[in-house]
Amino acid sequence: MRFQKLIQLSAALMLSALWPGPAKAATGGEPAAVVQVDVAACLAAVTADDMDRAGPPCAAVIDNEKTAKPDLIKALVARGGLFARHDQIDRAIADDSRALLLDPTLADVFNARGELWLKKGDKPKAVQDFGAALRIDPNHEKAKANHRAMARELERIGAQMAVAGKPSFNCAGARRPVEKAICANRELADLDREVYAANARVLREARNAGEAKTLQREQDDFIARRNAGFGRPGYDLKKAMQERLQRLNGVDGY
Length: 254
What we know:
Order of helices and strands: HHHHHHHHHHHH
Number of strands: 0
Helix content: over 70%
Structural class: mainly alpha
Radius of gyration: 33 Å
Distance between the termini: 107 Å
């Protein structure tokens, strides 16, 4: 019996050490004040869109290791949204990322972070987050719209990359010196392709067949002058192509 009582007493002492009672003040026997984590003040300041007022109460919640997980997520998402509205993109991404580590099922937060990545110009990360939001909630309207728009944008970029450095004509059949020069220079090749695309656009937008014929004659005249002028002293092929593109695009009053 005595041995059993000793075991019980030892267990009681261990529990007492792990879960101590109210702390005593350093200067006396009075219990120390228990700091309450109040997420409501943080949320109220964020709702008021007040950066200055939101700072201290939100930090008090987020930086307190005793904050309950649901309250921590609320504060992070709220402060992240506030940072986003005030164009503090990196800080907003940091808060959203931390919230998603705590709860990776937040479709709204994935979509919000995707929009932030988009503002930073990181389109692959944006698409990844929009896709994550849709995997969680396939009916998330904003994520669907964002993902669809980004998919089209990435497709367009891919198409541009596929033709980058390639002119409007097949270089395998290039015979004229000016054509060979264009094929040998990526910048000139891109300019040639842009001029060709701009001319095709103005022809589509012509009000009638007569106007389209006049516009095409202008393009043919430009090509003829380019072919004849290339290689002559003072002729600047790049400048000539840039000026033609400006005229087609209506820049500088043309």
